[in-house]
Amino acid sequence: MIELSPGDLARIRAHGEATYPEECCGILVGSVERTAAGNGAALARVVRLVGAENEREDESRHNRYLIPPEVILRTEREARADGLDVVGYYHSHPDHPSRPSDFDRDHAWPGYSYLIVSVREGRARDERSWRLSDDRSRFDEEPIRVPEPSPT
Q1: How far apart are the first and last CA of the chain?
Q2: What digits encode the pLDDT tens for the residues 37-91?
């Protein structure tokens, strides 16, 4: 399961709308907690988003993304310094469903959440999150939890 604030989810959706018809991309930073179920399940709690410029060549940005390696390394270093981890990545699918493509699977790593927002005709429609199986053969959908903001 992945948990993120309503504000972070809104920022991901807005990022997808702003880059449409190209894919947006970014990094999810937070912490991972093992659940009480004891079955290896985990809760990835997102506390920070790092939006990235899609560095893919122009003609493929509509259906591919590339986060610059230096952004990933810097984000990992900053997360560790704050006692956090990179828990996943997000990107958009312009005019396509929010499920991973074969390309997504070929370039993903087990142990991370992959949140995908579907942006149709410039509007974010829905989002789903996925985790790659350990044998890399498939993505399994994971629940997205967006807690209500606590009253102040």
Answers
A1: 26
A2: 655 678 999 999 999 999 999 899 999 999 999 999 999 999 999 999 999 999 9
Structure tokens at 26: 């970014």
Right CATH number for 2-145 from 3.40.140.10, 3.30.70.3300, 1.10.3720.10, 3.40.50.720? 3.40.140.10
DSSP per-residue string spanning 94-146: ETS-SS--HHHHHT--TTSEEEEEEEETTEEEEEEEEEE-TTSS-EEEE-EE-
Q: Domain residue spans in the chain?
A: 2-145
pTM of the shown model: 0.93
